[in-house]
Amino acid sequence: MITQKMKYALKALMVLGDEKAGAGEPLRIEEIARRSGAPKRFLEHILLEIRNAGIVASSRGRAGGYMLIKDPAQVSLPDLLRLIDGPIAPLPCLSRKAYQRCDDCSDEASCRIRRVFSEVFWTYLVMIESLTLADLLKRDGAELVALQGQPAA
Q1: How many helices (H) and strands (E) does the chain have?
Q2: Same structural domain for residues 62 and 13?
Q3: Residue 117: exposed, middle, or buried by beta-carbon count in 10 A (0-12, 13-18, 19+)?
Q4: Domain range holding 115?
Q5: How do the pLDDT tens digits run along the chain, 153 residues long?
Q6: Residue 77 domain flag
Q7: Among candidates 112, 93, 94, 113, which has minimal Cα distance to 103?
């Protein structure tokens, strides 16, 4: 499950992505908060993390604000999840980016818990690894549903 912080990050990036496709002018944080429904105070911390990752840029002054500087097709949703929420694996021993051996496990190869969660997680990972911010910016929801291999409703 993604956190509320991640949902706010995605909503803010969608606002910035829509702006990039339009006028491409920097947006003040108040405007991003208004359009995304995210609290301004919380959004400041989120946008700072995203800026430090090189996805958005910020400028000060009267015409300042935030602007998406990375191509939406290059903003990986799993990388963004890891940036905002941390490791996405259900067990530390399954994480590719933050692997840790489980303290209470004597043998990973024979761990039935790891085996069951591994099957589910890898299926999930294969599906999510292909998603980018560009997928969220698509206006037609049927495109994303088709991408996921599910029948359009």
Answers
A1: 7, 2
A2: yes
A3: middle
A4: 87-131
A5: 789 999 999 999 999 998 776 566 899 999 999 999 999 999 999 999 999 999 999 988 887 899 999 999 999 999 999 999 998 888 888 887 888 788 888 888 888 888 888 888 888 888 888 999 999 998 655 544 444 455 444
A6: no
A7: 93
Alpha carbon 93 to chain centroid, angstroms: 22
For residue 27, list its beta bridge partners: 66
**Cβ–Cβ < 8 Å for 94, 113:** no
48 part of a folded domain: yes
Torsion of CA 135, 141, 144, 149, to 10 degrees: 180
What's the rounded Cα separation, in Å, for the pair 47 and 50? 5
The model's pTM is: 0.79
Give the whole-angstrom CA distance, residue 124 versus residue 132.
Answer: 15
Place of tokens 């294969």: 126
Residue 47 token pair: 């946008």
